[in-house]
Structures are given as structure tokens and as C-alpha cells.
Amino acid sequence: MRILFFGDSITDGSRWRDDDSNMGFAYPFLLKAELGYNEPEKYEFFNRGIGGNRIVDLYARLKKDVLNLKPDVMSILCGVNDVWHDYGDAPNGVDEEKYYKIYDMMIAEIKEALPNIKIMIMEPFLLPGTGVDEWGYEEFRRKVEACAAKAKLIAEKYNLPFIPLQAGFDELAKTAPNSYWLRDGVHPTPMGHVFVKNQWLKAFEAIK
Can you tell me the mean pLDDT for 150-175? Predict the structure, then answer.
């Protein structure tokens, strides 16, 4: 079974671009370790997260990084950069309606090319932190939640598993400082990645 992780820097985890055996240091690494240990040689793992990617960037590399690999199972995590890139000197974000439109096109094309693929949609998330507070956390959160709602609508439209993450991070933030889970409000620490890994596994167990 070929498993693909598709997304932005949260998925990327500083992976090596020229070595598929190196999964980086994020939740895909943890999933490879756990699934590979529990069922040796059953799975192939591919990490195609790229830091800074928005939904339009994922769509632009759809053929190269998804369709050509022909995965049996894939997960998609994207949405924070669509908001984050709207701040700063040269705004280049993606609003929630365009986010939905491109996401919809991407899923439709994947399913047309790979009709037997199983796709899991992951919820974008954030907490107060150094990476978001300077732009105004409340507005930032509202916009990310709007994208998350659109991602959930995509999952519902195509009858795909939706992996909730925001509420879980909100609960974790009650047990330790935000930076214990998300080092800058966006990127998980090792402990945060364990949470993402656990949520991913719950969805995977239901579809594998």
C-alpha cells in the first residue's frame, strides 16, 4: 500500500527532497515509524509537503507529486499559508472561496485519475503564538477557521474522512503553554506532531 502525505511546511518537516526514505521530522515521520514497525514492508511512504504552499501551489504540482505517484491512500493538510500569505508587504493569500474552488478542482481531478484512491482531508489549525500574533490573532483565526470550514465541505461533498485538529489543539493548550504544542502558533513541536499523528491514525484505521 502506497501512502502519500501532501501539504505545506507542517507536513514537510524539513524532509530531504532527493531521498524519499527521509520523511523529515513531522507527523509523516512518526506515521512511517509506527505503521512500518507494526506491519513491516506493508506500506510505502511518500512525503510531498513543501513549506509555504497554499492550495494553489498544491494544485500546481498535482500531476508531479500526486498523480504520477499513484498512491493508494493520501492525506492533505493545507490552509494556514492561504491566510498567512495575505499579510506583509506583498499580500499573496488565497481567500476562502478560491480556496474551496481550487480544492474542489483538485479532489475531482485526483478521483478521476485514481478512482480507487482513499483521501483524507486534514483540518488546518493554529494557536496564539509568535508567528501569528503580530498580524492580529483573532482575525487570523477567523480566516483559518473559514478555510477549515471549506475543507470540511470538500470532505462532505466527496464523502471523504475529515480529520479534526483545531479543537484538539485548543484542549491541549489548556494543559501546557501554546508553544509547547505549536512552537510559533502554526508549526507543531514534536509533541504537537504526536497529536496530529494520533488523529491521522484514527481516520486511517477506519478506511484501510
Answer: 98
